[in-house]
Design brief:
Helix content: 10-25%
Distance between the termini: 17 Å
Number of helices: 11
Strand content: 15-25%
Number of strands: 21
Structural class: alpha/beta
Length: about 500
């Protein structure tokens, strides 16, 4: 009998399995839908390489068509370590107000002061050792010094400063607002995922079992108690406790297939309702992004994501930053897109969007991707703030020394769309908007399931005993940062509660 069954070996699941198996009396089984790789030598080259994200190990999700008929690619890693094995290695926390907001919504234990110890616990920060940073955690974090920045990244910092943006040495210090090096979970060019860090340290434990290429069809119940999982191969795994950590898209899909979710939706698919929880799959929030694309002759060797500017828009809804502008590249591209065959982007990301979408089953087939409405820019205020971020990116692009690296007219939005043409910029942004790959919220925590909460503040699914959710899907609102580090923090916080019983 397994004591704890962890479903999903991603950013959160690897943490949960590693932390719970620290107790030698607790038998932990971790299931991952993609391949497992036990050592660095077994990892594919693109998973090792921290210079840029990879989409070579993916579930193939796409969004529902938007108002323009566009479907957006929504990469989610199908590999041990999840998106921490394939992402851009941004190790940002967000603002204290992000987490204080969770507590203000009734989620006890989630204020910034209460979760700061878990941010510190997860990291070893190579650059700062103070009350805000960890020095002995599994995840190594560092910032590229000027000597390591490529030409575009170095020029971006100088151009942003000359455009009036303040300098920031440490984006993870409370109150940080401005431009500076991005903290990254990379070491010697290797992407340091939760699989390479947390899970590697735990693999030798006799009470931890890891199974790759294993897909859960549904959770199994005895009345109102979770007792294990039914796999797609017909196998049933018995467990005293089930923890879902399959991510913001897959976790609500598993719950819905299990009969936990909106009764009306389940009825249309012929699924027996175990618990009518209307919030399962609702409240999807994602950071949208869109770039100012520019041709360049700069060298394309080395890390492509090294710097970022965190900013406040004129209509920022809360404290802290609500915009990112970061330099991406340079990259080699087709000469059909850039006359030089090289391009970089000044990418604008909206970090506190108002728009909300959903995740719903397409069918009962576990291999059939769910329907996903990301709702990018559906709220008019989101579009207005993305236009503002685009204008900031343009201003930086025209400032020295970055302007000297640009080899032709702006590629997009393009010279035909002037800064004064707000409608034209908005149209360009809407036609090109993509995902920053930070979905959260589809099993949000809260105190009232009738008002959309799926789990209580300790991740316990309402109406079911011994079933927990411990991934980014429980976040009630989205942090103003890339969500890998906050997801690991959530897993650390939840692990501590799970170990209490």
């Amino acid at each position: 009998m397994t004591d704890v069954l962890v479903v999903g070996g991603g950013s959160a699941g690897c943490v949960i399995a590693a932390r719970l198996s620290e107790d030698p009396s607790c038998q932990v089984l971790l299931l991952e839908g993609g391949p497992d790789a036990a050592t660095l030598a077994e990892l594919p080259r693109d998973v090792v390489d921290a210079s840029e994200p990879t989409e070579g190990h993916d579930w193939g999700y796409k969004s529902e068509p938007d108002a323009l008929g566009r479907s957006v690619s929504l990469p989610r890693a199908r590999f041990i370590g999840g998106c921490s094995s394939t992402n851009g290695c941004f190790a940002l926390r967000g603002a204290p107000a992000d987490y204080d907001r969770w507590a203000q919504l009734g989620n006890a234990g989630w204020s910034f002061d209460e979760i700061l110890p878990f941010f510190r616990r997860l990291e070893t920060d190579a650059d700062f050792a103070d009350d805000w940073h960890g020095v002995d955690g599994p995840l190594p974090i560092r910032r590229h010094p000027p000597s390591e920045l490529n030409a575009v990244q170095l020029a971006f910092i100088d151009a942003a400063r000359s455009s009036g943006i303040a300098s920031v040495e440490d984006h993870n210090r409370p109150g940080a607002l401005g431009v500076g090096p991005t903290p990254r979970n990379a070491r010697d060019g290797v992407r340091m995922s939760t699989a390479l860090t947390y899970l590697t340290a735990a693999r030798g434990r006799p009470n931890l079992t890891i199974r790759g290429n294993t897909i859960v069809e549904r959770v199994v119940f005895d009345g109102a108690r979770a007792t294990g999982a039914h796999l797609t191969n017909g196998e049933v795994i018995d467990a005293d406790r089930v923890v879902l950590a399959a991510g913001t898209y897959a976790t609500p899909a598993i719950l819905q297939r299990s009969g936990v979710g909106p009764a009306a939706l389940l009825a249309t698919l012929g699924i027996r309702v175990v618990v009518d929880l209307p919030g399962v799959g609702e409240n999807l929030v994602d950071h949208p992004l869109c770039a100012v694309d520019l041709s360049t002759t700069a060298d394309t060797v080395g890390a492509k994501f090294q710097t970022v500017a965190t900013l406040r828009s004129q209509n920022a809804p809360d404290e802290g930053p609500d915009l990112h502008v970061f330099a991406a590249g340079p990259f080699d591209v087709s000469t059909d897109f850039s006359p030089t065959g090289r391009v970089f982007g000044l990418v604008a990301g909206l970090m506190l969007p108002r728009s909300r979408g959903w995740v719903r089953l397409r069918s009962v087939d576990p291999l059939d991707p769910p329907r996903i409405d990301v709702a990018h820019l559906r709220d008019a205020d989101d579009t207005a703030r993305m236009v503002e971020a685009t204008l900031v990116a343009r201003r930086i692009s025209r400032a020295a020394p970055l302007a000297e690296l640009i080899a032709s007219d702006e590629l997009s939005p393009g010279p035909s769309v002037s800064d004064n043409d707000i409608g034209g910029i908005a149209e360009s942004v809407r036609s090109r908007v993509a995902s920053y790959h930070h979905p959260v919220g589809t099993c949000r925590m809260g105190t009232d399931p009738d008002a959309g909460a799926v789990v209580d503040p300790r991740g316990r699914v309402y109406g079911i005993e011994q079933l927990h959710v411990a991934d980014a899907s429980i976040m009630p609102t989205i942090p103003s940062a890339n969500t890998n580090l906050p997801t690991i923090m959530v897993a650390e916080r939840m692990s501590a509660w799970l170990r209490q019983g």
